[in-house]
Amino acid sequence: MFSNLRSLIFKLDPETAHSLAIKSLKFNFVPNILDEDKNNPLFKTRLFKKDIENPIGIAAGFDKNAEVYNSLFKLGFGFVEVGTVTPLKQFGNPKPRVFRLVEDEALINRLGFNNLGAKNVLDRIKSKRQIGILGVNIGPNKDTNDRNSDYIQCFKTFHEIADYMTINISSPNTENLRNFHDELKLDKLLKMINEKKKDLKTSIPIVVKVSPDISDQDISKISDVLLDNNIEAVIISNTSDSTRDRLSNILKHQKGGLSGKPIEEKSTNLIDKFYNILKGRIKIIGVGGVDSGISAYKKFLAGADYVQLYTGMVYRGPNVVGIIKKELKELLLKDGVKNFTEIIGKKR
Fold this sequence. Notes:
By secondary structure, the chain is an alpha/beta fold. The protein contains eleven helices and 13 strands.
């Protein structure tokens, strides 16, 4: 059905189409998904000491204001991450700010953390408890005087309601946010969060989301900081503000973060490099170009324990999890494994 509707949907402005998708999920206009591989032992795993049906999650950015997370679980996602949420409501950058590059199976966005603010999102989650593992992705307001304080404020807001919290230091659409990749700045922020974690007597897992545009030297330094601060998982990676050379679409030079197929190889290579250093001590969530069984398979081989997607659903539709699982099952059965975790990090 989606393939028939796609041409109509793609005639809409991308942000309008996204709003329509959120409304469709909110009011259950999306039909029930037939999943032939539900509860298949091949895909079962654990995330932060909790059982999940499969390792495929929806990345932050789709459900920014925590409006449809339970509907996303019903679409088959093993876990859902909402946000990015900032302490105060903000509009984000001026429109137009999302661009669809169809020939490249990509998006470019410069949304700029548009969201309704922490209090609004908290009230919504409290009113409709999650039916699966729910992560909250947090960031600072654009005009804040103290970004560290904004992260702490969001951490305090969501620590009792989220299953894990993602520290977003890697959006290219908030000026100088990626400065947090500096080891001293990152270490200071994570130490503050861990201190607040102790004060609040919470054991909520902390995840850090990194940029795909970092150097090999950065990988080593960031890994050391993550290990020193007992971070439970790292998301590799966010959107790219480079990687434009091979794009075909005329919109390729729009400012913003590039997501989808063009960054698949870049993010997979980065996962491999982090895995080589971390060696399983910190879980890896792989993001970037995941839209098929083979793309997920390559992420697992490189060292990802889980994957997330967003752009993949834009191009393949609401049954993207079922599609990935069906294709991935064939690859795993050829390998003769009983569970996908047996192939993690086996690229070498």
